[in-house]
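Late entry, evening session. Most of the bench is empty. Finally got around to the prediction I had been postponing all week. Sequence below, unchanged from the version circulated by S.P.
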Amino acid sequence: MSAHTKTSYVISHKIVRNSKPFSDGEFIKECLLDSAELLCLEKKEAFENVPLSRCTVMIRIGDIARNLELQLQHRAVNFDFFSLALDESCNVRDTAQLLIFICGITTDFKITEELAAMQSMKGTTTGNDLFTELNAHLDTLG
């Protein structure tokens, strides 16, 4: 992975961690270019080659999310014991949200606690509906 690509991932990660719009990548790139012009003119071209368009930031964030899902799947395979916690509540638009948390432990006592999934629920939220959503997400974990 080139330094330009890695920089793009690092900045995209910071954008999503701070709940900023994906288009902020373009603003950040403008700031980088202006700073490079003042501080290190010979490196300005390197900053110009950092991909930070809105679409690129969206793709990078998707890649990061998939990587985190894969890491959780690899850890979950090695759990000797695990527990699940479900939380169902409504968001500001009154749409039910199901949060699925997993806590697992391996034989060498490595503990993992993660938000495994968040799912918007349409219609009813009976116990059967929650169970159906839980099963669907457990299948994706392996």
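Two things to note before I forget:
Residues 78-141 form one domain.
DSSP finds five helices and three strands in the chain.
Will write this up properly tomorrow.
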